[in-house]
Design a protein that fits this description.
The protein is of the alpha/beta class. The chain has 12 helices and 15 strands. The strands form 3 sheets. The protein has an 8-stranded parallel barrel, surrounded by 6 helices. The chain has a 5-stranded mixed sheet with strand order 11-12-13-14-15. The chain has a two-stranded antiparallel ribbon with strand order 1-2.
């Protein structure tokens, strides 16, 4: 970043992540996530290094199993990158990973899916203990589609922000109480307005805690970059945000574009080149698609998202939301709020109308089925013209 950097300095506490540091006025750290299968050590190590070379201060890997964890440890030994692990339901893998990685991200909502008889406090206490012993940082990662069910039950169904913030506050307070302060928090949604609202709310109550910014499932460029830019401009200009990711649906060999997009947004904010747009343009179709990552079980997911985007252009005057998810981890829950949802398995695609399942279809048949549902949706709503 140049000497003319004018982004307001964060007043959060310092958190070391491997060879990088964030918070406490440090330059905002751009990060990305590998899309190759974690167990494909050669390909993932190559991509992790490429992302680091492109400027990613942190590179994230998905870990769902012990074999994933063992592969991730091997990758750490081969690359010059600060590796963050995206831990799923199997929270006990943190013990194996902590000595080898720079950071571990856990999702409070996912803690409820594995070993339900164990209180979440006990799980977090163990994760924090292993992180402390392994000299690694943590991220409490709150996602709109996988919010802690206990928190979600306390709020009106139409209020998606409050349970996210409440969960982040709850986990932050608990980590503080047990004496583990080397952590960051993220509150993500696919709607940039909700990302802004959630992060401003949390930052107002806990201004000392570093925040990781992101619009989850931002989708295909350029729309995904625009959605993300809107949220980042509104937050970073207020001194909110210490690290960020631009989560784009991209082919594996183009993942570096996430890093370049993040750096460009930061440079533009610093130079005053901002769009001055508070709300994302909501006329017409809104296509939400998750960033390609190693949990994707069929690479055709990226092409499918592109095809859905092209199909939606035929209905430019009709406002509806289609969510295209690439895996079974995020797919079922994070398509519920869309008018129509697709989540991809290895050889078929699950089609949903809201939370209702409409069946599973081969990849070469799903677009025709989707188009039928779009037209039925429009017909039921009546013409908007």
């Amino acid at each position: 970043m140049s000497d003319s950097f004018k982004i307001p300095a964060s007043k959060t506490r310092l958190v070391d992540v491997g060879t990088s540091s964030l918070g406490a006025g440090q330059p905002i750290l751009v990060q990305s996530m590998c899309a190759t299968p974690t167990q494909d050590v050669a390909s993932t190590a190559q991509q992790a290094q490429a992302l680091a070379d492109a400027g990613a201060g942190i590179v994230r890997l998905a870990v769902d199993s012990r074999k994933d964890a063992e592969a991730a440890i091997e990758i750490c030994q081969q690359v010059d990158a600060n590796i963050c692990i995206d831990l799923q339901e199997n929270w006990r893998l943190a013990e194996l990973l902590a000595p080898a990685v720079a950071k571990i991200r856990y999702n409070p909502g996912h803690l409820h899916h594995h070993e339900r008889s164990v209180p979440w406090q006990d799980k977090v206490k163990r994760i924090a203990q292993w992180a402390s012993e392994g000299d690694t940082a943590l991220r409490v990662g709150i996602n709109c589609g996988s919010v802690d069910p206990a928190q979600k039950a306390l709020w009106p169904i139409e209020d998606s922000v409050s349970p996210m913030v409440a969960s982040a506050l709850e986990h932050s307070s608990f980590l503080d109480e047990i004496g583990f302060l080397r952590y960051t928090v993220s509150l993500k949604d696919s709607d940039p307005d909700l990302v802004i609202k959630a992060n401003r709310n949390f930052a107002q109550q806990r201004p000392e805690i570093p925040l990781h910014l992101g619009v989850t499932e931002a989708g295909l460029p350029p729309d995904g970059v625009i959605k993300t830019r809107i949220a980042f401009e509104q937050l970073i200009s207020r001194g909110i945000g210490d690290t960020l990711r631009v989560s784009l649906t991209l082919p594996n060999d183009e993942k570096y574009q996430e890093v370049l997009a993040g750096q460009e947004i930061l440079d533009d904010i610093a130079a005053g080149r901002v769009r001055s747009v508070v709300h994302f343009q909501r006329e017409g179709p809104n296509i939400i698609s998750c960033p390609s990552c190693s949990r994707v079980e069929n690479g055709a997911f990226v092409e499918l998202a592109q095809q859905v985007k092209k199909l939606s252009e035929e209905y430019a005057e009709h406002p509806f939301t289609i969510a295209v998810m690439g895996c079974r981890v995020n797919g079922p829950g994070e398509t519920d709020d869309a008018d129509l949802g697709l989540w991809c398995a290895p050889s078929f695609v699950n089609l949903k109308r809201g939370s209702e399942s409409l069946g599973s279809f081969p990849y070469d048949e799903i677009l025709e089925k989707l188009q039928q549902e779009i037209e039925s949706l429009i017909q039921n709503r009546g013409s908007v013209s």
